[in-house]
């Protein structure tokens, strides 16, 4: 059964369940269909702020904050479904009154490789609407927190490098996760000690991204080249090729999400770029089944699209080139070492040479793209 057929079957099944619920509700008024269930059978309506990220993500000024939790306990939470732990996020407010604002939260570990290998594991935060009301964190629910892996300047640079890649992705398409940089102090509630102060960043959660796009987030795997909107599919593949990232699989939803748009199209959104060549982390490796041995070696892993879709995607990269390079000289870009900036822009120069040379583009992209099985 094809991907689109499975989507239709699931939608019909959901709709049937909703209808049964409505009939039951007509027979017994006490049994009403939950609003959420009724809405799940159709495309969600765009929110009143459609197209706009939440206010938290609308500024690029790093938020100076402190995360307080039992760090020792968090480090021991290595299981896949770790429990939520108590935490707080605090910061110094400047308006309307100056003072420290402390927001109660919960935190739990997530991830795969970094979960088992990092000094501070990747985590997800959880806020309540009441707790964040009137605070800098208003609008956040369960966002990812990307932290340092090792408490060193080198590993902090990896965080900043990955943050830049999310910013590039946002320049290319709104179907991407918004991010916000934090200058975060990690405080241990058990000992009262501050363990580190490092840059970290918060990632917009998938449901919020889908809502601002007026789209529906799908959990169905198996999408192939013919299922996705061609130009957007090419853009995603070229973005991953630009940053040298092969640690994703669109059909398996590995470091990828799938959206159904109001136009009835399916578009992929990718995330988690720390294994990319542009980050070039010392711990990053390539899949043994691939022809490349180093993450700095590019290999196109995007889906094949019709030949007439590639020029539009390439044109987007060319149109945004100056803006992309400018990210490495703005206030956030200046947090990177000069050597990192030079190395990264040279890496991108190579990408632009390839996509603007017809022979190289055919050899490196069109001839090796992933086709339908």
Core attributes:
373 residues, alpha+beta, 2 domains, seven-stranded mixed beta barrel, three-stranded antiparallel sheet, 12 helices
Written overview of the protein:
With 373 residues, the protein is of the alpha+beta class. It folds into two domains: 55-206, no CATH class; 214-366, no CATH class. The chain contains twelve helices and ten strands. It has helices spanning 3-27, 35-39, 71-76, 113-117, 129-132, 153-172, 206-212, 230-243, 310-319, 321-326, 338-355, 358-366; strands at 63-69, 85-93, 99-109, 123-126, 144-146, 179-188, 194-203, 216-218, 256-260, 266-270. α8 packs across α9 (310-319). The longest helix has 25 residues, at 3-27. It is globular. The model is unreliable at 14-48 (pLDDT under 50).
Order of helices and strands: HHEHEEHEHEHEEHEHEEHHHH
Q: Largest beta sheet, briefly?
A: 7 strands, mixed, barrel
Residue ranges: pLDDT <50 for 5 or more in a row? 14-48
**Overall geometric form:** globular
Q: Short description, anyone?
A:
The protein is of the alpha+beta class. It is 35% helix and 18% strand.
